[in-house]
Amino acid sequence: MTAPLDISELHWMLDIVQSIDVGVVVLNRDYRIQAWNSFMENHSGMSANQVAQQSLLDLFPEIDRPWFTHKVETAIMLGIRTFTIWEQRPYLVRFKSYQPITGLADEMYQNVTILPLRSISATSDHVCLIIYDVTNAAINKRQLQAANTQLQELALHDGLSGLLNRRHWENCLEREFARHRRHNSQASLVLFDIDHFKKLNDSHGHRAGDEVIRQVARVTRQMARESDYAGRYGGEEFVVLLPHTGLEGARQFAERLRCSIEQLNVDYEGLVLTCTASMGVACMEEDMPGYGMLIEAADRALYRSKANGRNCITLSKAGELAL
C-alpha cells in the first residue's frame, strides 16, 4: 500500500508545478479554473487569484467551445489522456510569442495534453491541461517545409524565366502524348524563339538579354491557360503545350502571343528594348510514334518562320515528317 504524502512532499510538488516551463491548468466539470501555475500567469498577465473560479472559456473566447468540450468530455468518459498538436490547431489559448526566433510568429504555438484527474472515489471530476510552448519547433518545421517547397519549385522550374524547365516540361509532354494515344484527345505545341537574340546580347550585354527573356516568359505565363504547360526549351527558345487544342486553336493562341511579344517594351537601365518572336505550331497526329515527333514538327515549322522573314507563325503540315 502506497504511503500518503507528507506536507513537505506536497510542498515540493507544488514548487515543481510552479517552476516547470509548461502551463498547468486544472478545471472542474464546469470548466472553472482551480489551479493556474506561474507559466500561465506570466503569459496571460493574470494571476492565479484573478482567474480562480473563472470560466476558462469566458477568459479565452478564441477557444472553439464545441471542439474543446468534446475533447475534454471524451478524455473524462474514457479515462485517458488526449492530445492536441499545433499542426491541427496552432494554439489553445492565444499567448504572444517571446521566443528568440519569433520575428516569424506573433502567437505561441502550443501542444496540449488533456489529463482526467480522479478523485479518491475514482470519479473524474477535474481535468488538467498541460500546455507546451512549441514555437521554436513549429517555426523550424515550417521553415524546413518552405525550403523543401522552394527546392521542389527549383527542380521543376527554370531559374531565369520561372517557366517549366526542359526536363519537367518534356515529362509533361510525354504524359500528354500518352493520354492522346489512349483517348485520341487533341493537343498542340507552340515552339518559338526570340528573333535576333544574339544581336541583342552583343549590343546591350547578357544582363539585358536575361531581362528580355524574363519579360517574354512573363507574357507567356499570362497568355497561357492554367491547363497549359509553358516552358523554356533552352537559350532564347520557348515552348507551350496546349492540351485539348487543335491546330487552329493553337494558331490563334500563337498569334495573340506573337502580338503581345511584339508590343512588349522592356525597361533596362534607361533603355527601352523591344523584340519579336518566330513561331512554329504543330498538332498531335495519329501516326506519330512518339512525342519527340511533335517537337520535331513544330521545330521544322519554326525554321520556316525564320526563313520567311521572322516575326510570324508557320503551321506544321500534316504528314510532312514522313516525307
UniProtKB/TrEMBL annotation:
Enzyme Commission no: 2.7.7.65
Entry's localization field: Cell inner membrane
GGDEF domain segment(s): 185-318
Major enzyme class: transferase
Top-level taxon: Bacteria
Cofactor(s) needed for function: Mg(2+)
Primary location group: membrane
UniProt GO cellular component terms: plasma membrane
GO molecular function, one term: diguanylate cyclase activity
Catalytic function, reaction form: 2 GTP = 3',3'-c-di-GMP + 2 diphosphate
CDD domains in the record: GGDEF, PAS
A biological process term (GO) from this entry: cell adhesion involved in single-species biofilm formation
Entry-linked NCBIfam families: GGDEF
PANTHER family tied to this protein: DIGUANYLATE CYCLASE DGCM-RELATED, REGULATORY COMPONENTS OF SENSORY TRANSDUCTION SYSTEM
Stated name of the protein: diguanylate cyclase
Species assigned in the record: Halopseudomonas litoralis
